Amino acid sequence: MDPYCLKKLNIERLARRAALLLTDLGDGRDRVIREGDPVAGQLGEVIAKAFLSGQSGVAAVDGRSFFLNVHLPPPRLVVIGAVHISQALAPMARLAGYDMEIIDPRTAFATPDRFPEVRLLAEWPQEALKTHPLDAYTAVAVVTHDPKIDDYALEQAVKAGCFYVGALGSRKTHAKRVERLQALGLDEQSIAGIHAPIGLDIGAASPAEIAVAVLAEVIKAFRARRLRTAQTLEKTA
């Protein structure tokens, strides 16, 4: 591999941006392509589908053969709130293959004893998200019930295009939340994408059951993200 391409690919991976190494099997030339970079014609369609599937492989395009080595960021789950739901959610998320981190400025709750083997940021979201920014491969679950902690995180999750944004609370609670988010400048369509009440409607009552419902909804959103992209590709093909 070209050292320049390797350096560029590592930069993209560290920044949690999807990228692929495109190798022309005819002449051996390499090229790093970021998700969303414009690539014309049939090759562009093949690259878009590779990002969609996350699978590397050989493709024949216009009489030439290419190897597409795809690198997608691992899906991440950021939970705002070191609460009982988060305690139940942490081992489930790990089993499902999600990197999970918890942000909560309340140091009495965000302790290693309560959350072993979980990345804890005992900071306000305003500070934590500066060093751990959100992205399109991140799901955000907001569960503190405290607007001073929750609202900023929700605003940033929507702006970052996170594939899932959910917030704990009743419909009445969410209605008040919507008013606050509108005051922060979020439009109606963006706010409508927030899952509230959080989690699939399975009648969950206990913290563990709510955690199951949340993780199920996160997984559903991640898979639906790929489905929506596939449908878009079909329409533009």
Description:
This protein is α/β, with parallel strands linked by helices. The protein is 45% helix and 19% strand. It has 8 helices and 9 strands. The chain has helices at residues 3-14, 41-53, 84-95, 125-131, 147-160, 171-183, 188-192, 207-236; strands spanning 19-24, 30-34, 57-61, 64-71, 76-80, 99-103, 119-121, 138-142, 164-167. A 5-stranded parallel β-sheet has the order 7-6-5-8-9, sandwiched between helices. Strands 2-1-4-3 form a 4-stranded antiparallel β-sheet, with helices on both faces. Helix 3 links the parallel strand 5 and strand 6. Mean pLDDT is 91; it is low at 228-237.
The tally of domains stands at 2
Residue windows where pLDDT falls under 50 for at least 5 positions: 228-237
What structural class should be given to the helix and strand makeup?
alpha/beta
> Tell me, what is the CATH class of the largest domain?
Alpha Beta
Domain XdhC Rossmann: 77-218
Protein name: XdhC/CoxF family protein
Organism: Phyllobacterium myrsinacearum
